[in-house]
Specification:
The complex is a heterodimer. By secondary structure, chain A is mainly α. Chain A has a single domain, classed as Phosphate transport system protein phou homolog 2, domain 2 (Methane Monooxygenase Hydroxylase, Chain G, domain 1). Helix content of chain A is 88%, strand content 0%. In chain A, helix 1 packs parallel to helix 4. The two termini of chain A are 37 Å apart. Chain B is an alpha/beta fold. Chain B has a domain of 180 residues: P-loop containing nucleotide triphosphate hydrolases (Rossmann fold, 3-Layer(aba) Sandwich). Chain B has 10 helices and 10 strands. In chain B, the strands form 2 sheets. In chain B, strands 6-7-8-3-9-10 form a 6-stranded mixed sheet, with helices on both faces. A 4-stranded antiparallel sheet of chain B has the order 2-1-4-5, covered by helices on one side. Classes of the chains: A mainly alpha, B alpha/beta. Chains A and B meet through helix 4 of A and helix 8, helix 9 and helix 10 of B.
């Protein structure tokens, strides 16, 4: 096959994007652990590790620009670069959300009853990210639809969890000051919102992958 | 505007009130199941394609795929090759250019050509451009000075040569010579300009001037260009035809479709450099 170096550059980029996604998922799992345990060491690992993700993002962005400028990809190769360029942005944002989640653990003790719900939603969104990246790795269009389909359920669970957390915390914290209650409620709601956004980014990755594989923008919105 | 002298054939054809040949649609040149043979070797295989008016249509493909053969069929340049045999249809405004009553010389006035290597005549810049008008016998009917200036302006060369019109065309740079050839081609008021790798012998700056010029030319002309440079095809053309080995037209579509999402795997493999 001609253009060996070029083909190797494309495969290297795909491998590096997948490596970045594994790192991001690892940070997300640690963030859920941090919410549950409040372990400062785990929190610090997620928060301080964000610089590493940001650098990785910048490096991969430069790799995409270099390939565009020097190799002038077209057709499927062009869609692969365009999709990768967008996907690394979603991965970087997921890492930011993981940093947020870990940071919340510093501000409050997460309600023990709430943590089970947060972890359950968080694990579902992690599965969505992994499935979307698996589709990207294998040029698998079918899986991209599965990821998009799961997002509605995540949204619904986030809404239910928000209502429950507000109700439970208000009832249990009657003795606390209004300020303390508001702080605790808002942090819990922010955590739910961030997890819901992780799901949205997983859908974005799936949408860009579908475009990459089949030039179909159906999931891009 | 067309005149009697512009007619391709000796018999009457349908003309509009303005004297131009009627155009049922926007297609200027259309091939229908076109086969071309050089002796026993088939160079084009069942090629059907409609070239739209006032657009740049690029033909790309590997060496020997028949793209230049197709180009040369359009204004019957292949007539000069004895072993060349053509079957199927090739129409210019609906009239088959290979009909017995078509005058190839008149056809080439309406379908001009620019070649890979600039080929100005060993004459002055002025005479290079005026040549076609004189051959057509139009020199007495038009203000030759005005016609030469208009053609040189149309080829984006006027400002560079207006003070040296008596100099030899051969003294110009390669890029200027190619634009002189384009001026010569448009001086006779063609409708279609065929270009066979017009920038392959030029440096990038001269090539980019030709590309800019092509973008301007389609305001008035239809351009059909053969190029080995796929990025050039992507940059300058509205439609792209991909010929592959065996003289087969594999895909013909809008250029962005070809370069973003071609229908055929063979086209994808070719344009991404996986073969060829």
């Amino acid at each position: 096959m001609p253009r060996h170096d070029y083909q190797r550059q494309l495969e290297r980029l795909r491998g590096n994007v997948l490596d970045m996604s594994e790192l991001v998922v690892e940070r997300l799992e640690l963030a859920l652990d941090a919410l549950e345990t409040g372990d400062e060491e785990v929190i610090e690992r997620v928060v301080s590790g964000d610089d590493e993700i940001n650098q990785l993002y910048l490096d991969l962005e430069q790799d995409c620009v270099d390939i565009l400028a020097l190799q002038q990809p077209v057709a499927g190769d062009l869609r692969f670069i365009a999709a990768s360029f967008k996907i690394i942005t979603d991965l970087e944002r997921i890492a930011d959300l993981a940093t947020n989640l870990a940071g919340y653990a510093r501000r409050i003790d997460v309600d023990p009853d709430a943590i089970a719900g947060l972890r359950s939603i968080g694990e579902t969104t992690i599965e969505m990210v992994e499935a979307a990246m698996s589709a990207y790795a294998r040029d698998d269009a079918d899986t991209t639809y599965d990821v998009a389909d799961r997002d509605d359920a995540v949204d619904e669970r986030c809404e239910q969890a928000s209502e429950r957390i507000v109700r439970d915390l208000l009832e249990r914290s009657a003795a606390d000051t209004t300020e303390a209650i508001l702080d605790e409620v808002s942090i819990h709601l922010l955590a739910i919102r961030d997890l819901e956004r992780v799901g949205d980014h997983a859908v974005n990755i799936a949408a860009r992958t579908l475009y990459m594989v089949e030039s179909d923008d159906e999931l891009i919105y | 505007m067309a005149t009697d002298g512009d007619k391709l054939i000796t018999t009457d054809v349908q003309t509009s009130s303005t004297g131009r040949i009627e155009r049922p649609d926007e297609t200027v040149v259309a091939s229908q199941q076109l086969d071309v043979y050089y002796g026993d070797e088939q160079a084009l295989d069942d090629v059907s394609m409609e070239i739209p008016e006032n657009k740049v249509t690029a033909i790309i493909g590997p060496s020997g795929c028949g793209k230049s053969t197709f180009l040369r069929c359009v204004n019957r340049m292949n007539d000069q090759i004895d072993a060349c045999r053509i079957e199927g249809g090739l129409r210019f405004h609906g009239k088959d250019v290979y009909d017995d009553d078509v005058d190839p010389v008149a056809l080439r006035r309406k379908i001009g050509m620019v070649f890979q290597k600039p080929n100005p005549f060993p004459k002055s810049i002025y005479d290079n451009v005026a040549y076609g008008l004189r051959v057509q016998g139009k020199a007495d009917d038009v203000d030759l000075d005005d016609a030469v200036e208009e053609a040189l302006r149309g080829a984006a060369l006027w400002d560079e040569v207006k003070d040296q019109l008596d100099s030899s065309g051969l003294d110009l740079s390669g890029g200027q010579q190619q634009r002189l050839c384009i001026a010569r081609a448009i001086a006779t008021d063609p409708e279609v300009i065929l270009m066979d790798e017009p920038t392959s012998a030029l440096d990038p700056v001269a090539a980019s001037k030709i590309e800019d010029l092509i973008a301007d030319l389609v305001e008035e002309y239809t351009v059909l260009i053969v190029t080995h440079n796929m990025q050039q095809a992507a940059r300058i053309s509205d439609k792209t035809a991909v010929f592959l080995t065996g003289g087969e037209l594999v895909e013909f579509d809008n250029t962005n479709k070809i370069f973003e999402n071609p229908e055929h795997d063979r086209v994808e493999d070719y344009i991404t450099g996986k073969f060829g």
